């Protein structure tokens, strides 16, 4: 039985996102179904949020956010610790 691996790439159409898309396409196998999703689309953004996406580029594989993409995003405490919000 040949089942497809569903790979969703959440992109903001920036150079870093483009590099990620190209890398995934280079290493994907025939059983990988790649979809590039535009975060400017509100439905895509809602879907990304439901998966836990906090920054782009990000990947979901078979409906699960890839480990390399978990926990990234803004951290207010870390930003404040670096001096943001202080004169």
Describe this structure in words.
- By secondary structure, the chain is an alpha+beta fold.
- It contains three helices and four strands; from the N terminus they run βαβαββα.
- α1 (15-27) links the parallel β1 and β2 (32-38).
- The mean pLDDT is 91.
- A four-stranded mixed beta sheet has the order 2-1-3-4, sandwiched between helices.
- The longest helix is centred in the first third of the chain and has 13 residues, at 15-27.
- The protein starts with a strand and ends in a 6-residue tail after the last helix.
Quick overview of this protein structure:
The chain is of the alpha+beta class and 87 residues long. It is built from three helices and four strands, in the order E-H-E-H-E-E-H. The chain has a four-stranded mixed sheet with strand order 2-1-3-4, sandwiched between helices.
Largest sheet: 4 strands, mixed
> How many runs of DSSP E, i.e. beta strands?
4
Mean pLDDT, to the nearest integer, reads 91
Kindly state the percentage of residues in helix: 25-40%
* Shape verdict: elongated
List the topology elements:
Elements: E1 5-11, H1 15-27, E2 32-38, H2 42-51, E3 58-61, E4 64-65, H3 76-81
Parallel strand pairs: 1-2
Antiparallel strand pairs: 1-3, 3-4
How would you describe this structure in keywords?
alpha+beta; 3 helices; 4-stranded mixed beta sheet
């Amino acid at each position: 039985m040949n089942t497809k691996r569903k790979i969703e790439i959440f992109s903001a159409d920036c150079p870093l996102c483009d590099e990620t898309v190209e890398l995934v396409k280079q290493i994907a196998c025939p059983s990988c179904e790649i979809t590039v999703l535009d975060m400017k689309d509100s439905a895509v953004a809602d879907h990304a949020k439901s998966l836990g996406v906090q920054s782009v580029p990000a990947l979901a594989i078979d409906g699960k956010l890839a480990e390399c993409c978990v926990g990234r995003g803004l951290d207010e405490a870390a930003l404040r610790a670096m001096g943001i919000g202080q004169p």
